[in-house]
Fold these 2 entries.
Entry 1:
Amino acid sequence: MGSLKSFIKNVKDASTPKKERDIINKESAKIRTRLKDDSVQGERRRTYISKLLYLYILGERTDFGQVDCINLLSTSSSSVSTLNYEGGCDFENKRLGYLGVILLLKDENQELLTLITNVISQDIYNKYIAGLTLECLGSLTNKDLARDLCSDLANLIVKSLDSVSSVDKLLTNTSGNSGYLIKHSLSAASSLLKQDPNLLPHFLNVDNGSLIDKIFDTFYGSDGTLKKNGVTHGVLLSIVDFVVSCFNCKNKYDFDSNYEFMIKRSIVGPLTQKFISFLNYLAFAVKNAEYEVNGITDPFLQCSLLQALRTIFIEYRDDIDSNTHVTFKQTLMKVMNVQALPDLKTVANSGKKSAVPKLSLSVKYETIRTILMISYLDNSLKSLAVDVLVKFLSSRDPNHKYVAMKTLAQGIQYMDSIDEKNLRFILACVYETDISIKRRSLEVIFEILQNDKLANQVTILNHLVEFLSQATSNEKELINYCFRKLIDIHVLETVENSRFLTRAILYCGFYLKNEQIDEVMVILNNINSNASVSFIKELIQLLFSSEVSKEDKIFFESNFAFKVLSVWCMGEYGSMILESSTFGNTQETSQMIVDYFYKINNDYYNTVESDNAAFIINYLITAVAKVSTYINNKSLIEKLRQLLIFHSNKTGNLIISIKSNQLLNLFSQPVATKRQIFAKMPHFKAEYNNDALTFSKTESSLGEIDLLTDLLSSANVNVTKSNQAAEIPLNSKKIFQNGALEIFYHVSEKKPILDHEAQIQVFYKNISGDTILDLHSFVAVGKTQTIEVGHISSTTMEPYEISKQHFKILGQGHLMTRIKLQYKNNNIPIVEQFDYKFDKSI
Amino acid sequence: MLDLQYMILLSKTGKVRCIRWFGEYTSREKQILSKDVIDLVLSRNTKESNIIEYDMTSVTSNKRPNGHRVMYKRYASLYFVAGIDDSDTCNELLILESIHRFVETLDKYFGNVCELDIIYNFQQCYYIMLETFSSNGNLLESSKKKILQDIRIMDQLENSEGINHILN
């Protein structure tokens, strides 16, 4: 078997995927057998493990080697374990072993983790291995591991800190080592807290309450100096990481007020001012090659500090004195203005290693977001922040554009005005090649649209419609987003803007879902009549006018939503269309409408089984009936009747044929009655229920309309779910019976989450002829067990009714219960007691 | 805070050269996610930003936020890809800078690093990653010098051990 290098080379040089596969399979099988052989040790074993890791990178199965990695790192770990220990004869094994475990066991076999608990608790005291060990603990930790090793970890931090303060005065070098240990331990501690927030007191209890503060003071001065040789910003990074994890504990769990007190006492109190000063120092620090990124000193630490401070100032606003509030505000201001933005247009983005982006905006970006997120900061500061943000837009680096757009959506509300140039910039961003920037810029545009002091609505709507008209089918999602947004913000419901609604339907119609079409109808129905008139005019103009070009006509004809809406509008607004002189004389218009109906019918009647066709035909037949009341020409009315007859005889879709039949019945009524029945719909209120749209009337002017809602709502059937009564599962066991009650136990078949736990459902059934009142149960279990008793679902039971209760038994031993029951039957109090033994143990 | 969920080093041919998961995912989620990420990253052109918005609903149940960003940077033939969940704390620009910081460290360690260095010395690459990013996906050390110093000491230990073995 060859070296790792030759294995990698063979895989890399394989000429076909099949050959590559063969090589990998062969090697994988070899590794599997060799690892089983205990005589293979040392260098050779390490080679196999390395190959195993390479298999992991290739995405191959590696679970067979998990135990071998653990074996590798546990070899001879009983050797020296002091803080000054720097490796030993097993360093090589351990280094590789830990790497293997970190990679292979992440989110995998949880049971194997118990095997490494001991090793970790020893290895964290070994200097260089400790780093890897702590990383391993951090990445793999689960709740058990976290609880077992938490106090060890806290001890380690205290010890390392002590060694710095005692020894370091003489040996400056060790501080670097202790710093290294503290850095790794704190980051592991953050991971443990993520697993179990209840571990917080280990790090912030009375004994080591000021631990974090002490670490800070040992290594750093608040003026930004590093107090010890060999100390880097790493320790502070992990302090901030830990602090933020403590805050996150609070968000994730219902917090004990005691924890809140600990956080205030150990973190917020002592550290806030120090963090601010350190941030101040970093923002103006002299360039330091070690930490600099494009002229900014350690943006990583600056951003971390900003994030921690942000949480402090949002969550603990009242615990901070006013002086600190002022300094923080000043600091934010300074950090935001520290480096005047150069002309961003010259900053290009390039993937090449040599051409590093010349500008680091991350800290500025973080500051701006911090200002926007702390709600109580004054608006002048906020609008200043947004002004700086807008400058990001002109950068040629698309990443800057993206973050600016993303944040602007929240920032727009603080703007008083937006200058022409920037507005053009934002509007132009919808034509970017990057879909994320596009989407974000649309978000911003809609924000501006809702804020009419910033820009002229019509200008923006013009741009939007222009964008929609050019959008391709690849941008389906975006188009849909735009349309939904346009509808949601109710911007199109005025007379002036109704023409944009026509356009929006025209360009988005291809992508709309049927429910959305329904929504548009509701809107049209509810807007004031002037606006709807101008909408109809636009629509009919597009449909019937000879001025519209042929291409456009073809375009409408393939647009489903447009067709449905025009059919519906002709039905609802038929009288208006016919009376209005703008569309030529009444006779011609009636002819055109009837022709249009026939055309739609021809397109869809064949496929009436499909959803879309049924949807449009459904509207078509209603419209046919409605229009018939306004047309005077007898032959045209007859044509409409034929259309209904045609559908009433078709059997493809039962709902449609029933509806046509009903409409036909109404068709023969006198015109006056018909007009009343087929009057325009009243205002609707849309209700969302079980994901289906149902309409309910808000005002009913005519009695006949009730009848219509019945007829017309055929497509929207509202299903109400009846509350299902409790039922006794089939495999339950009857454990007790007397004249009035039957009791069943049902043990859930699902494997319980924990061992030594039983989940039991108890069902009480009333078999007497009378109501059972005030049912109470008292349950006892064996000495080695505890029981949690749930509520009885109902303490009053009608005859043959069933009540449920839940028992959870924890502990070990044979499972048995003693139940005492109290209830009233026929108003006579009854007490019963019985034992039941299960045939299994837990 | 970076809050990385994973980091993948990817060749331009779509081969994974190094991969580490920080966030919690099941094996199935890892599989789908890494496949999608590779496709997404390789299909980008240079005019687009280095930030891809990705919807997690296709990958995982609703236990985590659906918004997800895939961020990448290309260096010669190698893509460095990092994933983050959408949250108040994610700073896209900072993540790109941290990727660059990691690459600089690799560059210093290997001396003008190229893809082959990483392919053949993936363990070394992992060791550097372990010193640069902490187990919860945050930056552990912002000083390149310190990282390299620590790694070198460990390398020496390893080598001297090898020599000791031979001498014994």
Note: Residues 4-162 of chain B form a domain with the Beta-Lactamase fold (CATH 3.30.450.60).
Entry 2:
Amino acid sequence: MKIVVNGEASETGARTLAELLSERGLADAIVATALNGAMVRAVTRPATPLAAGDRVEILAPMQGG
Amino acid sequence: MDAMNMNAGTPGADPLEFYGTQVSSRLLLGTAQYPSPAILADAIRASGSQIVTVSLRRESGVSKAGQSFWSLIKDLGVKVLPNTAGCKTVKEAVTTAQMARELFGTPWVKLEVIGEDDTLQPDVFGLVEAARILCRDGFEVFPYTTEDLVVAEKLVSAGCEVLMPWGAPIGSGRGLNNPYGLRSMRAHFPRIPLVVDAGIGLPSHAAAAMELGYDAVLLNTAVAKAGDPARMARAFARAIEAGREAFVADPMEARDMAAPSTPVMGRAVLAD
């Protein structure tokens, strides 16, 4: 299935947002997630299904001013 | 931090409160643009800052840069103030704030809604709207704003208990562009913590902000881009302390003409 992750077209076998993070080696990482522009809390990622064309953002702590 | 424990609560201490959290350092430091993580850590330690700003960016599964940055910040034992830097719409800023709250585990957010690319000037209309939404949702909002009093009033009505007017455009290092406007703002909001955020280039700029009665200064580039960031961080810490002391000490009024400081009475007559 084709989705867009952090602005890049990606092919994934993940059925949920939690599986997508595992697929990318980020299962235990400190990240925040959004699906199609809306935030998805960590606790609801396993119950958040992915569909073709979905836009996912995976954000982490970063330097800021 | 040891320095923080030494200062907080000691007689003569002059603590500052943001949303019920007391700090003794009046310097809030940004964490971006340092030459290396080690230099960033040195600069934060040297600054004595107890609050540092952080951001959110896309994480790569390969580099995991965010994870190492976060462990560095946690080890320093400082409070974080996540920002919504780069957001241009209310929706982007609100969603970013929500993600930051979960990621960093704090209701604090430095709210930026940018309206203009050349000056990075806040979009004050979007800012007020986003502040209203976030305050209602339990956030403790630190709005990056201009010195406009009407906007500031609306931010306070929205629930903001801190205001952060710019000194000059972000990263410009110009200092206080509008001291008159900043002074008016201080007079207009005597009890709200006011922080000059952005545009500070030199310790003297920061001291000037404190002498106007501002409660704190938030800066990043002036330290990060100095040849020796840790040393510059220390210089800012001292300037901010000096400026605060000066404000509390109630400075003299400036005057146009000279006034002799040495007493005139009893002066010997030695002229021919």
Note: DSSP finds ten helices and twelve strands in chain B.
